[in-house]
Design goal:
alpha/beta
């Protein structure tokens, strides 16, 4: 099996706090040629892509060596899942042809930007390192027994680091604009990307300079924001993919993506779907985790009924939400539960996706500690938010209680 990956030649992923890796599945942060860690506001894109670690990883993959940086992709591929490496390689061929995938020129052309932590939601699988809405709750839960009188002050220093430097005068914006002539694909995340005003200025600049007509945009949004003025900007780009982060429906969606309201999001889904044409494509991104794996078929069936395409994103961390770390008995029962469901599903794409999720779930034994942390974490958040896991996920909770009695 080839280990070639388009991202080690063309890709960069900048985190909310400014660190850089090849992609969202990478394990390691990239450095420059002198071994200094790169950040979006201290180094330009080329310095990261040509640094010591980037060169090492690139050489290993081209020599058929599965570098540890790419462990998440190797794990997914071992379970039969189409990993990000495979998906991105396929997408490169679809967008720019086989010759581009085979091209060994090192240039920052496919870039993911996580532009700070500004967000209006505090999703269960997230935290203050990606969402500003999480800051107060995370402190209240994690520091509730901290006797240090400076605990809040120290915590806010950490929060500032998580937020990165994306002020209007940050060098980050200069580095992004400097790279516009070379960018073929720009993936924009958050926080909630549709709330970041400065990015729209950058996109307008790309239009003014004539680059947008050759650029592909990808947004991953929580689907709570729909601004017609933003849509007008998107129409100037070669292609736009809008991924709606939706991991469930109804009350289960609201529990996972607090304080979003399903009625609002469902209305926005219809608005986004109305945009679909040769230029704009809209799909759901379903992040599979411990909270929603039991209800995956319910969610995917709803998407099919409303004409919303989807793809599966496997959550690897935090570990207590990784489906690999569900206890052995519960994984056995989940697998058993899906056996008749898979037999009656006539949609081959859905059946294959669910089977791959189950295969991934069953590739490792639970580490025990993470499974226990799932209960501790769920109860703490339920208490803080006045929510109820048992009432929201009654079928899954009944299955859990039959083995562990964790939610009496």
């Amino acid at each position: 099996m080839t280990t070639h990956c388009i991202n080690v030649f063309k890709g960069l992923r900048y985190t909310n706090s400014g660190e850089v890796a090849f992609c969202c599945k990478s394990e390691l942060w990239l450095d420059d040629k002198d071994g200094n860690q790169c950040k979006i506001y201290t180094h330009d894109f080329n310095e990261a892509l040509n640094g010591k670690l980037a060169t090492e990883i690139r050489n290993d993959l081209e020599n058929g060596i599965k570098h540890a940086n790419c462990k998440k992709c190797w794990d997914e591929e071992a379970a039969g899942l189409p990993s990000k490496r495979i998906l991105d390689n396929d997408r490169a061929v679809e967008y720019w042809g086989q010759a581009y995938l085979d091209d060994k020129t090192v240039e920052p052309a496919i870039v993911e930007l996580n532009l700070g932590t500004l967000c209006n939601l505090k999703c269960r699988i997230c935290g203050p390192w990606s969402s500003s809405r999480w800051v107060e709750e995370h402190f209240a839960i994690t520091q509730r027994n901290n006797p240090n009188p400076n605990a809040k002050k120290d915590y806010m220093i950490q929060v500032k680091d998580w937020q990165g430097n994306y002020e209007d005068d940050s060098p980050a914006w200069d580095h992004i604009e400097k790279s516009l002539p070379h960018l073929k694909q720009i993936d924009i995340y958050g926080g909630e990307p549709f709330l970041v005003e400065k990015q729209w200025e950058i996109l307008k600049r790309s239009i003014e300079l004539g680059y947008s007509k050759n650029q592909i945009l990808h947004f991953n949004t929580n689907a709570t924001q729909f601004n017609p003025s933003h849509i007008e900007i998107l129409k100037h780009f070669k292609k736009v993919l809008i991924s709606l982060s939706i991991d469930g429906i109804g009350k289960r969606f609201e529990y996972q993506r607090h304080p979003a309201k399903w009625d609002l999001v469902e209305n926005n889904i219809r608005k986004f779907l109305s945009l679909q044409d040769d230029n704009i494509n809209v799909v759901a991104c379903v992040t599979v985790n411990t909270l929603n794996v039991y209800y995956l078929e319910e969610t995917l069936t709803h998407f099919r009924q409303i004409g919303l395409g989807y793809y599966i994103n496997i959550l690897h961390g935090p570990p207590h939400y990784n489906i690999k770390n569900i206890s052995k008995d519960i994984k056995r029962d989940i697998t058993k539960y899906y056996t008749p469901i898979l037999a009656r599903i006539t949609d081959p794409y859905m059946r294959e996706r669910i089977q791959h999720v189950l295969d991934f779930m069953n590739t490792n034994e639970s580490d025990g500690r993470s499974w226990n942390e799932f209960f501790v974490n769920t109860k703490l958040k339920d208490s803080y938010r006045k929510e109820n896991f048992k009432e929201t996920f009654p079928e899954f909770c009944k299955l859990i209680d039959g083995c562990s009695h964790e939610f009496p």
